[in-house]
C-alpha cells in the first residue's frame, strides 16, 4: 500500500467515525454522563414546589430533599426551549416536576433519550397534521423532544381535582416508550407475570370507558397507550378517589409506581457488564442502562 492509499484510508476512517457519532448522538444512543448539582437547590424553585405541586407537598422532609435533587438533575440535563414565548422559573420547575413524579420511586431511572422540552404558549400544531395538541412526545425528526402547552401545563397543577395533568401525561408516554414501544405496558418496570393481568385490566376498563360506565375520562378509551397516560394522571392527582372507585386499577398502578424496596434495589449495579435485571439475557449496558442512568 502506497502513501496516497494510506492517507485515503485514514481520511475515510475519520469521516466514517464522524458520521457514526453524529447518527448515534442524533438518535440518543450515546449518553453522556449526567450533570449533577454543584450547589444547593434554589430557594425560588422550592417555593414554586411548595405552592403548586401537591405531590411534593405530601412528601416528608427526606423525600422532599430527594424530589428537589431529581428536579435539579433534570433541569441540568434537559434543555427547556420556549417556542414564541419566554420560559420562566415556574415553567421550568413544573415541567421538571411533571417528569419526576412518575419516576420518583425509581433510584436508577433517567429519561436518557430526552434532550429538549419545547414549551408553546398554548395549543400547537401536530407535525404533518391538521390537528392541534396540548402535549406531544416527539418521533422521527422530533425524537428526543417533548412538546407542551404552557397554558395546559399550568392548569394541570392549578386544579388538583380534575384528574388531568398534561405534563404527567406526556412523561408517562415517554416512560412507556422506554421499552421501545408506546403500548401501555411498562415492560422495564413490570414483572413478567404482571403483564397479562395488566392487559386484561386495560381491556376491562377501556370497555367500561367506551360504554360510558366509568368516571375515567373518555380519552383513556382511545388505545392502550392513552389509557396508561390517562389513568396515570388520575392515580397521581386523585389517588384516594381511584382507590375507592377502581381498587384493582389503583393496586396495579401502585405496584408499578411504588414498588417494594427489593424491586428497586435490583437496579443497583456497580458494573455495566452485569446481566440485565429485566431478564433479556443481555448485559445491563446493552439493555436497560440505556434508559436507567443513576441520579
What attributes does this structure have?
7% strand, two-stranded antiparallel sheet, Cyclin A, domain 1, alpha/beta, 295 residues
Write the layout of secondary structure elements.
Elements: H1 3-26, H2 43-52, H3 54-57, H4 61-77, E1 79-82, H5 89-103, E2 116-120, E3 124-125, E4 132-133, E5 135-137, E6 145-149, H6 150-158, H7 166-176, H8 192-210, H9 224-237, H10 239-245, H11 247-257, H12 261-265
Parallel strand pairs: 1-2, 2-6
Antiparallel strand pairs: 3-4, 5-6
Helix pairs in contact: 2-5, 4-5, 5-7, 7-9, 10-11
Structural class: alpha/beta
Could you estimate the helical fraction of the residues in percent?
Answer: 40-55%
Sequence of strands across the biggest β-sheet: 1-2-6-5
Q: Using the coordinates above, name the CATH class of the domain at 35-180.
A: Mainly Alpha
Question: Using DSSP, what is the number of strands?
Answer: 6
Based on Cα principal axes, name the global outline: globular
- Averaging pLDDT over every residue, what do you get? 84
Largest sheet: 4 strands, mixed
CATH topology-level fold name of the domain at 35-180: Cyclin A, domain 1
Describe the structure concisely for a colleague:
The chain is α/β, with parallel strands linked by helices.
Folded structure, characterized:
This protein is 49% helix and 7% strand. By secondary structure, it is an alpha/beta fold. The chain has helices at 3-26, 43-52, 54-57, 61-77, 89-103, 150-158, 166-176, 192-210, 224-237, 239-245, 247-257, 261-265, and strands at 79-82, 116-120, 124-125, 132-133, 135-137, 145-149. The longest helix has 24 residues, at 3-26. Strand 1, helix 5 and strand 2 (116-120) form a beta-alpha-beta unit. The strands form two sheets. Strands 1-2-6-5 form a four-stranded mixed sheet. Strands 3-4 form a two-stranded antiparallel sheet.
